[in-house]
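Dear colleagues,

As part of the handover before I leave the project, I'm documenting each prediction I ran so the next person doesn't have to rerun anything. This entry is a single chain, and its sequence is reproduced below.
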Amino acid sequence: MVALAAVLLAAAAARAQSPGDPDQDIINPDRPGTADGSGVVGAGRFQIEAGLQQDRRSDGSSRSRTDYVPALLRLGVGGNLELRVESNTYTSTRARDSAQGPTRSEDIQPVSVGFKYRFAEATDSQRPSMAVIVRLFPRSGTGNYKTRRATGDLRIAADWDFAPQWSLNPNLGVGAYEGDGGRLYTAALFAATLNYNPSKVVNVFIDIGGQYPETRNGRGSAVVDGGIAYIVGRDVQLDFSVGARVAGVTPARVFWAAGISKRF
């Protein structure tokens, strides 16, 4: 996996063109970070956003490490509409418990299909661009991640360039998710990313994301993370981020992620 990622990074960088004109059209992925932006890839464009993420959890005498490969495929079918397929794909979990000893499991996480539709364009610093993002999760997944019910969520995403080199990406939404026993529950969703762009190709960010409730009849959860993204040429972005849980029990205690996005 690491060798394949290195080959892909090298190939993408070799094929990328120099930034040239700072006002040219450049890639604008939804990764990294918790909140998604309102931008779409454009008619006839195809974009892959993938990476490697590691979550670490602890509870009393038990410890676990989960590695997975988040992936988002985006296909532009119009100037303001794109189709999306998203999943955390292959997942490997290694756990150690004082009573049971070490265990390991390998699973495939559920896949979602959906779309993003941008319904408002930014006109100036007072009016952000806005989009709606819809995901539907059919019954899918294996092992510990196998779902018995179809679920989904809807979010409103915005991009607000409120100051030179600074922007904010707030997300608000609602989801219907599967709880214990296969019963559905409704949750409110929130995320916001604060971006600082010292140049057209560098983005430093910090963000927060939350869900209430995190489980059926549970409390709320929240995570914070921060990182950096760098655009190579016009069509490739590399990113790295780290984060931690600040509320709840379902998110990882700490996590890190690294990824690559490529536009075709």
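The two ends are 22 Å apart (CA to CA). The first helix runs from residue 2 to 15.

All the best with the project,
I.
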